[in-house]
Amino acid sequence: MALWSERQGSEQTVKSQAQGSLEQLARVASENVAGYLQFASQIVQINRANMASGLLNADDAAGQLLNFQALLTSVPQLNGVLVGHSDGRFVFLRRDGPDSLGQFSRVIEVRPQRRVLTSTYDARGVLTGQSTQPDPYDPRERPWYRQARAAAGRVVWTDPYVFASSGQPGVTVASALSTPGGEVVIGADVQLRQLAEFLQGVQISPNGRAFVTDERGHAIATSRAWPGEASAGSIPLLRDVADPALRALLDREARPALAPGTHWYDVSGQQFAAVIRPVEVQPGVTWMIGVYAPTTDFTSGLSGNRRPLVFVLLVSLVGSLLAWPVVLRATRPLVELQRQATTDYLTGLPNRASFVAQLEESLREPGQGALGLAVFDLDGFKAVNDTFGHHAGDEVLHAVGARMLAALRAGDTLGRMGGDEFALLVQATSREEVRLRVEGVLEAVARRPVVVDGVAHALASTAGLAFLDLHEGALSSDQWLARADTALIRGKRRGKGRVWVEGEVTMPTLFR
Q1: What phi, psi does 434 have (nearest 5°)?
Q2: Residue 418: which H helix or E strand, with range?
Q3: Are strands 460-467 and 127-131 parallel, antiparallel or unpaired?
Q4: How far is 298 from 312, CA to CA, in rounded Å?
Q5: Exposure string (b/e) for 136-157, b if CB count within 10 Å is 16 or more?
Q6: Could you tell me which residues are beta bridge partners of residue 373?
Q7: How many Cβ atoms from other residues are within 10 Å of residue 263's Cβ?
Q8: Cα 213 to Cα 202: distance, rounded to the nearest angstrom
Q9: pLDDT digits (tens, 9 = 90+) for 273-311
Q10: What is the tens place of the pLDDT at every residue in 142-173?
Q11: Global model pTM greater than 0.70
């Protein structure tokens, strides 16, 4: 009787340990997967708002490509950004080449006749190839376009599919917008490969697996390769690729999608535990995060050479810290951590800490040509805040950040340093080109007033620009920022609304 009671207690301990550990892993994975996916929805909403307000011209393909280049540079979750028109026009930019460091663009024009221009760029944004070969692609035939048109302006998610241009599995997030030139659909592509890389960081044991599926049972991502073969050109179903342990759970549920909760079941006489947790991708669309393993993986010291899962869990989370830094605080959603750690909450640009980190990386390995750092502040912004309040000031800063972002070139790095101060890092072939790019940002800010609550605020900006000189020896990021800031302060005393290069204004000339 005592032996039976002890055995029952031991089994309950193992089940409790298994359930707690798997629930923790599933919660970590679901929170971070949800945050990862929401970035695409946010980008679509930002582009839609910018196009609705006129900050992004629906008929300017070149301007859209510049905006898309800046987005891909600053948002690693994105694989591509696109706009499809009701007359068949199309603008598309995605990652390309080794390690996805290059870019591929496709622009389809239909007036006066159909013309398809495809271009490829290297990691520095330099054009490496171009073609005008005919291509039958029509955005209006794609699922993302049809779904968005049918959803009356809401953000929609496609089912997982294989991207035609890259051959990689992913989803497209899209939303339709009516413009003076007709209806357009704005979208963003998210590769699912990164989800698999994240799940590999939370591998629970050699016999267990973490996976992502949707309501139709697609095998979206997994922490280790499925034993079954996937059909080329499509996202397989879990039933077609599952190992015996997962297949037994699917058979037990007798449905394409697994029910949320904790599941206990036997496979060939061996007990398994599984935790399934829902992730709401958007209202009405739910994916599932699953984690399962045999309960023997959770025993501690009962079989001599098996490690307790608590230790495996710890190793898994440490591994995920290395593979996916956002899991540093695993109990908090990725989107919140990203926003707080690297992103300015008001403009969506890199914050000061994130910008300085990128600046320090550029200082360690400066590229060829000229490297310039510009610091901007807004002329007249204090009057907006003092007269109309912080709400108006926040709206102005948001609009200015969007205008600056739209004016960037591939490879430029823009950040908000605080208040009405922004900073821009530019790598170009010459100092003159750097200066021209900075002037382009100033022009974008001053091009037209920012309208808030029916009041038009005419704004301009002044910039101080400093260049990295390798002959001067190593400078810290703080020193270099101080040089650009000094050029700004001294320049504003002479005149606003222009770029002042370090050295153009010196102390003896300040009081002339």
Answers
A1: -60, -45
A2: strand 413-418
A3: unpaired
A4: 9
A5: ebebeebebbbbbbeeeeebbb
A6: 425, 466
A7: 18
A8: 16
A9: 898 888 887 777 788 888 898 888 866 443 444 333 333
A10: 999 999 999 877 889 888 888 776 677 888 99
A11: no
